[in-house]
Design goal:
This is GDP-mannose-dependent alpha-(1-6)-phosphatidylinositol monomannoside mannosyltransferase. It comes from Aquisphaera giovannonii. This protein is an alpha/beta fold. It has 2 domains: 11-217 and 382-401, 3-Layer(aba) Sandwich (Rossmann fold), CATH 3.40.50; 229-379, Rossmann fold, CATH 3.40.50.2000. It is built from 16 helices and 13 strands. The model is unreliable at 1-25 and 404-416 (pLDDT under 50).
């Protein structure tokens, strides 16, 4: 989600700022560790940047390598880092059209050559894992997904060129080269970490490598049920919180609620908004992007969150669960690892009809839901849980890579 940095940090983030979570869990075991961090690009504060933020707070003296950086677009903890950008940074207006520079990104990534480090950590969904690591230095890659355009998103990307055969052929050739390059650079990673079992499966399929799963953090100290939640019923509107782009399948939520005459509030922005508004019935309203406090308020009041897309993990459903909201989600992708029929409903058919059937059956059953169980499920993905797990892995890898200090030799002095 491309939301602005929240005004006023929660207590968990303030503790993280002070380094409490890291010190509590690991003491001084990582003191003095020389780390390089790598992130694809820094243009906003989304889920990936919230993962990066944890590492920036843990290793504030690390160098942070990235393709481009829009100053002020991320949190203070990231902005304070020593940030090194690529040759793409010099292109005028690059922070607005960097996605069109995909063919140049592998070339730009060649400039990432950390030196004098004990550990490299990349957070990658595009090219970050291609960082050139010194011989013998371990490289942990926190993988959001293998390069999307080269793998599972390839056909969707090519679909846009079907009416231009020459460009289609060129795009197909380019994506083929990118796939081969992406697969080859996976050898530069010593330890893969996946954000979900879904991504673990993709890493195995694309790179033929195993990985450990560490789910991204959700701020469960900010996203909480309303203080009076136990004394009132939820209101009569369904909710969508999402970027309005095709793969999110928000059109299915709009069509389902329009057909059923159910109120639907859509919070989000994107190129699909005009089309969605044109197809929406009178029961559907669009609010654009909203501040986090407005989103939290809607999580607390909605009848249920609708999540019809297939995501790599999906932070929005967990935020909703943290506020005690039921979640109606497609039974695919990361949502299958966070949502169950005990805290909402999973449905199998990825269509409007599938979502309509889900809503009708849930309503007919009396809208069963246990807010306490939903909250408990969300707490499994709390910021502190993520911090302990990712820092624990760092400690394991760094400890294994550091040679033991040889004991002081015992010298036997012969007596005269």
């Amino acid at each position: 989600m491309d939301a602005s940095v929240r005004d006023g940090e929660t207590s968990s983030l303030r503790r993280l700022e002070a380094g409490v979570l890291e010190r509590d869990a690991f003491g001084t075991s990582l003191a003095g560790l020389r780390v390089a961090l790598v992130h694809d690009w820094l243009t906003g504060m989304r889920g990936g940047e919230k993962c990066l933020e944890v590492l920036c707070r843990a290793f504030p003296s690390a160098t942070l390598y990235t393709l481009i950086h829009r100053r002020g677009s991320t949190s203070p903890a990231i902005e304070r880092m020593r940030i090194r950008t690529s040759i793409l940074q010099s292109i005028p207006g690059v922070d607005r059209h960097y996605r069109h520079l995909l063919p140049l990104m592998p070339v730009a990534a060649r400039g990432w050559k950390p030196r004098d480090v004990d550990l490299v950590i990349s957070l990658s969904h595009c090219v970050a894992k291609a960082v050139r690591v010194p011989v013998g230095v371990p490289h942990i890659c926190y993988c959001f997904t293998p390069m999307r355009y080269a793998w599972e998103g390839r056909e969707a990307y090519l679909q846009g060129w079907r009416d231009r055969p020459v460009r289609l052929a060129a795009a197909r050739f380019l994506l083929g080269r990118l796939r081969r390059w992406d697969e080859a650079t996976s050898d530069r990673v010593t330890h893969f970490v996946a954000i979900s079992e879904t991504i673990r499966g993709r890493i195995a399929a694309c790179y033929r490598r195993d990985s450990r799963v560490i789910a991204p953090p959700v701020d469960t100290e900010y996203y909480t049920p309303a203080t009076d939640a136990g004394s009132r019923d939820r209101e009569d509107f369904y909710l969508v919180v999402s970027a309005l782009v095709p793969y999110k399948r928000i059109d299915q939520a709009v069509a389902a609620c329009s057909r059923l005459g159910r109120r639907l509030v859509v919070i989000g922005a994107g190129p699909e908004r005009a089309r969605l508004e044109a197809m929406a019935g009178p029961s559907v309203s669009f609010r654009g992007w909203q501040p986090d406090d407005v989103i939290r308020d809607h999580y607390r009041r909605c009848r249920a969150l609708l999540f019809p897309g297939e995501e790599d993990f999906g932070i929005v459903p967990v935020e909703a669960l943290a506020c005690g909201a039921p979640v109606m989600a497609l039974n695919r992708g990361g949502a299958t690892e966070t949502v169950s029929n005990e805290v909402g409903r999973l449905y199998d058919e990825p269509t409007t009809d599938g979502l309509v059937a889900c809503l009708e059956s849930w309503e007919a059953a009396g809208r069963p839901h246990d807010p306490a169980r939903a909250r408990g499920r969300a707490e499994e993905f709390a910021l502190g849980v993520f911090t302990r797990r990712i820092m624990g892995l760092v400690g394991e890898v760094a400890g294994a890579s550091r040679p033991a200090v040889p004991p002081r030799p015992h010298v036997t002095l012969d007596r005269p």
